[in-house]
Amino acid sequence: MARNKFDIDETLETPFSLKHLVRASAYILKHKWRMLLALALSALASIASLINPRLTKYAVDVAIPGKDIKMLVIVSVLLLVSMSATIWLNVLRSRIMARVAQTIIYEIRTDLFKHLQYLSFDYYDSRPHGKILVRVVQYVNNVSDILSNGILNFFIDIINIVFIAVFMFLTDVTLSFVIVAGLPFFIGIVVFLTPATRKAWQKVSNKNSNINAYVAESINGMKVTQIFAREELNAGIFRRLSEEYRKVWMMQVYPSNGVWLSVECISILITAAIYLTGIRWMVPAVSYGTLVAMTSYAGRFWGPISNLANIYNSFINSIAYLERIFETIDEPITIHDETNAEELPDIQGRVTFEDVTFAYEKGHNVLEHVSFDVNPGERVALVGPTGAGKSTIVNLISRFYDLTGGRVLIDGHDISKVTIHSLRAQMGIMLQDSIIFSGTIADNLSYGRLDATEEDMKKACDIVRASEFIEAMEDGYHTELYERGGRLSQGQKQLISFARTILSDPRILILDEATSSIDTQTEKMLQIGINNMLKGRTSFIIAHRLSTIKSCDRIMYIADKGIAESGTHDELMAKKGKYYELYMSQLIKK
Amino acid sequence: MYTYKWVWQNFKGYHGRYITALVMQIVISAMVVVTPSITGRIIDRVVVGVDNGSGVIERHPEELVTLILLMIAVHYFRMGASYLMIVLFEQAAQGMKVSLRTYLYEKLQSLDMSYYSKSRSGDLMTRLTGDLDMVRHFSTNVIRMLTNAVVIYVAAIIYLFTINWKFTLILVLTSPLFMIARNRFSKTARPLFRATRDRLTELNGFAQENIESNRVVKAFAKEEYECERFDKFNVAFRDANLKATFTWLKFYPLMETFSQSLGILITFFGGLFCIWGDLSIGQLAIYLSLSWAISNPMSTIGMLLNDFERFLTSANKVMELYYANSSIVNPKDPYKKDEKPAGRIDFDHVTFAYDSNVVLRDIDFHLKPGETLAIMGPTGSGKTTIASLIGRFFDVKEGSVKIDGVDVRKYDLAYLRSNIGMATQDVFLFSETVDSNIAYGDEDLPEEDVKKFAVAADADSFIRKMPDGYSTIVGERGIGLSGGQRQRIALARALAVRPSILILDDTTSAVDVETEQYIWNQLAKDEFKCTRIVIANRVSSVRDADQILILNADGSIRETGSHDELMEKKGYYYETFMLQNEGIMSGVTEAASEGGAD
Question: Where along chain A do its domains lie?
Answer without folding.
Answer: 27-100, 118-330, 336-426+552-590
